[in-house]
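quick one: zinc ion bound model?
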Amino acid sequence: MSKTYYETLGVTQTASFEEIKRAFRVKAKACHPDYHPDDPDASAKFKEINEAYEVLKDEQKRAAYDRYGHDAYVNGMNGQGGFGQGFGGFDFGGTGFENIFDEVFNAFGGGRRRGPAGPARGSDLRYNLEIDLAEAYAGVKKSIQVETYVKCDTCAGRGGKNLETCATCGGTGHVRTRQGFFVVETECPVCHGTGKTVKDPCPDCKGTGRLRKKRNLEVNIPAGVDTGVRMRLAGEGDAPLNGGETGDLYVFVSVKEHPIFKRDGADLYCEIPIPMATAALGGEVLVPTMDGKGETVKIKPGLQTGSDMKLKGKGMPILRTNSFGDLYVIFRVETPTNLTQKQKDLLREFAAAGQNNQSACDDFLSKIKKIWKEL
Ligand SMILES: [Zn+2]
Ligand SMILES: [Zn+2]
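yep, here:
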């Protein structure tokens, strides 16, 4: 069992990003090779610290690391298996249906950084898909257009004939550059981390082994999805440079606000205005439901604003089950405005007939009187 990245940086597994950053700075300074030119261990230690920080500073990489454990992660997860369910905290913006790949995830660990590189893995891509509540309720098949790198058929993704070792990086796939205080190891800009260059480049892909292409994909959105649900289309991401495994495409779903229903998980909330007379006398009212049928509910005489009612099973479907959430109806009594003369007369008559049923008002008044007396 090797040292975990947390141990390398000397922080706990629950450390915040700020704590990790601070620990990294202190440690990196302490063993920076430039300050310890005679200490052969310093360089190795510095590399270790950098490696730990690379992973722990990145929310997704850290999540994957926590999930799979140090050894599994370091031995090359290659991004397989996804980043675990339901990480929240992304900003979905109102991107709708345009082709937006605003986030390019690089594969976790493994692969490129740990040269001498074999074929790299293509980037995982993100597509933001906005759907409306009715689509989330029923489930929907969406066709999306994406533009990704695909393997060049002419050279079968190899980039051309006669591969030779990259002269820039000596075949390691990475180069060391100085960024201010630190020496950073980055992907070789010439061979893009593969360690190989092509002597006779393919004319179609100019030696990269891939081409950009617009493609139409179908996405099956299951009933019950909510904002934050992420769907993985395996192998639909970018083809890598010079052959290797294609990345995945992640479709991030967001559900638009509905004009009537508010959603909380599988439950829905809906405010229904009730005419004053119906509220006082009782009656029936039609409540809209997501299945489009609506449901007539009985109102008891004396309904108050803010009182609610639960319609069991009239909420959203629960993802990958046959169950449904509930619909909560919240009533709001409407005080009439723009009264006609006749209505005004009737209401005055009503008021003059005594307000024996206004117990809340009477209670309130007696409370106020009591407070005044105490002052
Ligand atoms: Zn190179
Ligand atoms: Zn080609």
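Residues 77-117 have pLDDT under 50 and may be disordered.
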